[in-house]
Request: fold
Amino acid sequence: MVTKGEFTVIVSRKEVIAAALPLQEHWLPFSNIDLLLPPLEAGLFFCYKKPESDNNNNNFASFVDVLKKSLAEVLVPYYALAGEIVCNSVGEPELLCNNRGVDFVEAYANVELRELNLYNPDESIEGKFMPAKNFGVISVQATELKCGGVVVACNFDHRIADLYSANLFLVSWTEIAQSKPISLPPCFRRSLLNPKRRRSIDPIVDSMYMPISKLPPPPTELQQASDDHIISRIYYVTNDKINAINSLASANGSKRTKFESFSAYLWKMVAECYGPNNEKVSKMGIAVDGRSRLSQGDNEKSKQLMRAYFGNVVSIPFGGEKINQLVENPLSWVAEKVHEFLETVVNEDHFVGLIDWVEMHRPEPALAKIYSNGSNDGPAFLVSSGKGLETSRVDFGWGKPVIGSCHFPWGGSAGYVMPMPSPIGNGDWVVYMHLQKKQLDFIEAEASDVFTPLTFEYLNSIISI
Reply:
């Protein structure tokens, strides 16, 4: 039994779901890009209301039975998710594909779907609906709510899967649950990301990544006590606000994407939290998917292999600007700075160089510089696009989720933000934000017309909960 906040979650059953067919035990190496990820857990959760039709299949027991049977089937092509991470002879992590299985938890929560405070996932999701990942590379929890609704949550080891890969798995799982063929079977060919061992590597990679031996020292106890702690919140941003931000960011005549514009807006807001006279440097990173840049030629087969590739194919460029510059200049200027540092990585040469850079430093671990912010640095955070999470397709037969989001309190000294399209499909965004409390308090005070706390009143205004 787990008791937190205003409701109780009772675990009724725990079991391990293995692949439906036997698998020959083998080792799957991490790619060089996988090796850049520290051991982080990344959670995704989906909330479903009780189906309107009242038949024998629309009860929690039947739903869980479908989940478990389809999970066992999908773990055959996604065999890596049924394995476990172990270290090789030089201390690097590898996947042991031994069909150890996936931890599956069944639970009950004495709360209704409309009563969940999703605005504060630290209280409503963490430790309640998000399963602990003690072994293996993924854990799953299905929780029945008092109203008959269900929350399905998955906790991934980020070293195994980026958001794109997690979405591949979830869509395949739901397709099997609905007795459909898998539309895009996964590809685990690590040779697609083999190093080229070029003699020269773009020096920009050195500015983005570092061996862990060069990490800045951790803050002292006094610094930890004085620093504002990081918390998680979930907001929704309406389509008209996104379009207005996009218009302001493109005011200098250069058309910016909505994601670039939103990221620039957030960077400027965080800077304004520290006042106009602050000369510390604020850093913002953006996660860039490299699949379309590593298609290995123009033929359709190569492109299809990268579209199906399961693993991490992400680079994290970042920009650093003085806080007073971010405050004083218009949003279009900030958006131009975002566009400039993104332009350095949206090509094949960058991702090939990144793979080679890791190869040069192995076996010493390395990671993105944006992840660890020194105690004397200005504020830093990472923005990752959640448009690759096809929430509306995560339908196990109970209908589309009324809401889906990540929950990623990643433990670094920098913040993390992920905007995702609303499952309603009306152009609104659901935005997960893991930032310092004072930054979120400032944003809520100064931009309350943009960032509205996610409540079921918002969802109920569009669909009946």
